[in-house]
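User: Run a structure prediction on this.
Assistant: Running it now.
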Amino acid sequence: MSDTIYALSSGALPAGVAVIRVSGPHTSEVLRELCACVPSPRQAVLRSIRNRNGDVLDQGLILYFKAPASFTGEDCAELQVHGGRAVVNAILAELGDIPGLRHAEAGEFSRRAFHNGKLDLVEIEGLADLISAETEMQRRLAQEHSSGHLSKIYEGWARRLTHARAMIEAELDFADEDDVPGSVAEKIWADMRTLKGEISEHLDGAGIAEIIRDGLKIVIAGEPNAGKSSLLNHLARRDIAIVTDIAGTTRDILSVDLSLAGFRVQLFDTAGLRETDDKVEQEGIRRAYLTIDQADIILLLSDTPEGFVELGTSQPEKPVIRVGTKIDRSPLLWDKASVDVLVSTETGAGIDRLLDVLVDHLPDLSGQNALSLPTRKRHVSCLQQTRAAIEMSLAQSNRGLDIQAEYLRQAGDALGRITGRVDVEDLLGVIFSEFCIGK
């Protein structure tokens, strides 16, 4: 933490502009050596960037952030230069030759921000999600976390747990004092029961958060030549799968990511489901059934009314949308009551209706301005531990207030591990390894 670190903090090269970030105690010395000045904090200045021989490497905007008013909480600087590979490499090489400087490790800027109290772990994870967000819902979810809204909820719960423990400890230690309120049960345990309910309600949103962050898995299934690969290509608007009239063309699982109503959707094409002696095709069908079992929604395709296969999934409640295909060839065959949607990938008929049906299966977030939802397994695990500890505390009323207070302490510790307030050293390496260099 005493080193001064540097790294390219912007995207891949070449680019119009590249941002090189420096953080640490030698930041001002770096600016004097490269730019012959230390700008006023938070004021951009145009300066030439020179090497030790005085040769100009580039000209760019220089920004200086004095501690603690910076991203990392340390002295920081940003060099906004032209994004050519040669330019950036020359400046990075010059920085590497300055004594006391070293190249940053993955996530090291964010890790320093955490250690210096600028961000907690939920905000940092939200920042990583914001950088990698591909859909509108992913952006909204990540923005909610990186801006600290979710952390405020957890901090409010933590304060209530701390208050409950303080009241219990006061009654235990100063029961004879007049200014210590009695009857902890009336005031504290009612709030703890309410808190347990709030955590349970919050955990109910974990499924929605998983869909937003990881995507909804939609599997296209059906007999050979039912139009599965054609539908995948049509929705992807490019040729992903090979399409022929030969049954069994698709042998392996193909997938494509789409954005549907702001949600990420993973669309899977599978091998045609039928009895066969072909060993390779049998393996493809086995994988198809495995993918079907892991799906959130199944599109069951057939080009004839009697061609819908029996899936026999282990989850009978899983949504199955029956799709009649190739209606441009035989539109009169179909009874609309026997299918959910009729489509043609040749003419595009029915595709909009199919998308509308899929949107109906997405989580309904209308009227929900905030997306304060637990997104990671560690969040869910810590929340479950918190709730379980509160339940144990409520159930131990016959064993004494000291036992109940201990369970509330455990609940507070579990909650604190989400934001990084307690006992998180073993988590830091895992969390920050997800970051790119320069962040």
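The two ends are 15 Å apart (CA to CA).
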